[in-house]
Amino acid sequence: MQNVIVTDLNxxxxxxxxxxxxxxxxxVPIGSFWNKVLRIGPNPKTPGAQCPDVEMYFLPVGCQHCxxxxxxxxxxTGASHKLADGTVQIDKAKCIxxxxxxxxxxxxxxxxxxxxxxxxxxxxxxxxxSQGELPQCVEQCGGRARFFGDIEQGIENLEGPGEPGAFGxxxxxxxxxxxxxxxxxxxxxxxxxxxHKLPNVGNKPAFAYILRDRQWRGKE
Amino acid sequence: MELQWxxxxxxxxxxxxxxxxxxxxxxxxxxxxxxxxxxxWIAAAVLLVVGGIAVFFHLKHWERIFNGFGxxxxxxxxxxxxxxxxxxxxxVYLVAVKRSExxxxxxxxxxxxxxxxxxxxxxxxxxxxxMVSRPAWDSFVWLAYVLxxxxxxxxATLAVIAAVTGEADFKQLGLWALIGALASLLLALAYAxxxxxxxAAFTDVGLYFDPTHPTKVMADANATLADQALLLWxxxxxxxxxxxxxxxxxxxxxxxxxxxxxxxxxxxxxxxIGAIALRVVFYNVGLxxxxxx
Lengths: 220, 293
Hints:
heterodimer, A: 220 residues, B: Formate dehydrogenase/DMSO reductase fold
């Protein structure tokens, strides 16, 4: 099992709702982020091209819950560990605050919580997914661009929040959070070579990004 | 990334301590520097303790330090084990020195074990920083460079202590200090070249913008490398490695206690400046592969 978030970058509008929702749901300290949206571009569509022949996309970045995480390999205490659901978690009670996991992460998504003296990062909203809910960034994505689930069950089976029109007459909170859409049913078709990952230096990032009709910038 | 001063001091002092202990053990293996053995041991122990205190300040929860033995694949766990092994060998070594008839000898097998454990400690310590996420760090030349710190600092410190404790023969000690300083120069040059050539290893996404840090400039690996060039080449290579090599050459040619007191002290000061300068560069150019978050 490998729980992931896949983001359809053609749907992402860069509203930062995922960043804000994450900070609110997880009490992320001011100045720190578990999920941050970068704007990649505008870059020339072809080498040397000038405006308006440019393109850009927004890229939400957080812990990629890697298959072979470097942060877990370097952690001397076992505080950073990989769970059976594929997520990488930190046992704060074991952490000695050596920050080697911060250095070992290729994506810089870990930070030292100065107040607690331990390392923090995205937990994939462990408190929510353990109860069958979606991670907060998926639930509140303004473009319904983020989809969560076990990637081993197929990318098309990842789930996002349902559209309000599907709620029927029952507009309760319970209905809202349990109504889902599947990635395969919802997003525009895409080819396998339009599914990208952040640079892999042996850590095998599990998260993925769908980007059609634009050039993916950076290594994979 | 931010300068980690505790780790900068830790790696410098451990390289110095292990270098000195290794050098005195090498001398013991060849029956040299007998008068300097006890004083060198004390100096190496003090350096080890200073390095240990520095690294404790780096840990935010040092009271959980024994958790540090929890993952044998981790560089820190391996460092802890290596340092403990070094401490055990050092204690056995001290007992042997104090029990020897001339107060400065140890069995050859013990001397060679001490040399090997000293070198292994430095290698294990440096290896824990080799991370694929940080292209400027992920090089065996870095590992060799830190060993070079030990090679210049250890024999030079032993020569100074030998001069102070009344040792008369500097032929062998001086030669080791010279070889150590030359090796250190070569390794410093190699690592400086390695750092300068690392720019292409970082991810390039073209123009980008971080809306949560609107005034932050874009990460630029090549500009960062250029910013550090003066500290790297002047601080780490010229002051930290070339001057010690020149000093060792002069002292070796003079071949007396006065020269080694003067030039040996200068070598130590310059090598320490170089070691710290390079570690500052090390952290400043220690950008992650994906450096935009």
